[in-house]
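re: that chain from earlier
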Amino acid sequence: MTKTGGTTPEKTDVKVSLIGGHRLGGASLHERTVTASLIGGADVDLTDVDIPEDAELRITKLSLIGGVSLKVRADVVVEVRGIRLGGVTDDGPTRAGGPTVRIDAWGLIGGVTVTRL
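^ sequence. v structure.
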């Protein structure tokens, strides 16, 4: 992931499916990603992505049924917003500061689980 400059518009990835989730990760992931499905979650692995310290990576998840499984480095700050019946499992960053990943999870059933490596 590379942070775009102040004059360049941010790129947004859009992933859509009726049934089935999405796997996201890798250096090709842009600063904004929207994943939408009727039934299916999002499996996001950001452990090998170089997120600049001052960057914010935003992932929006829209689904009726399906949660978000997020894997990040220990120094990444994760903010979770949205409405869903499932809860949020996250033990927080191990140190203050660091890059930020914001998850906007909108759905009926499905929580957000953050795993730190």
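The chain has a mean pLDDT of 83.
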